[in-house]
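Mods, move this if it's the wrong board.
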Amino acid sequence: MSATVAAPLVAAIEEAWAAIRERHQDVPEVVVTLGSGSDAKGMKLGHFAAQRWVRGDDELHELFVGGEGLAAGAASVLATLLHEAAHAAATARGIQDTSRQGRYHNQKFKSIAESFGLTIEHDARIGWSVTALPARTEAAYADTIAMLHRAITAHRRAEAVAVGGGRKSNNNGASAECGCGRKIRASLTVIEAGPILCGICGTEFAADV
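Not the wrong board. Structure tokens:
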């Protein structure tokens, strides 16, 4: 990515993160990275990763922003930043807000994200993760959104992912995890035949394939 595109983008995202931190004091400092958010598993608009960078004796968190998501515009990017800021606040508070290697978002995440001004809806596979930016929050961050809009002069194309001729057989089956963290192992045929629900939390076991 050209420096004339990347540098203003990173600076704008850093400024937007600072604006979020002004309103939510426990959101930590981050190192911003840009890159491809598309792979065989789908599209990743953003990701907060704790303690990924080292500065002297300090450990810093990482904020990844997928370049493909920039195509949706500045308001959508702010929604992504607020979503990741909610994860960052959960980390700072010592709250476990996800399971299934960070894929399934629980009610604790929903509560934090809504307090940050987002509208959160439920998805059977990823939990309380479907994010929207309501009008009142968009208005509150109007200056930040305008600044992001000026900085977004390009976006990344999604990666072309090759589709193979079929899944390889696996005699050991696949591991699957529910919302409360219980794990089972079953054949892919059994898992794909229909939902397997946890008797404790009531969520579907999702295969980690």
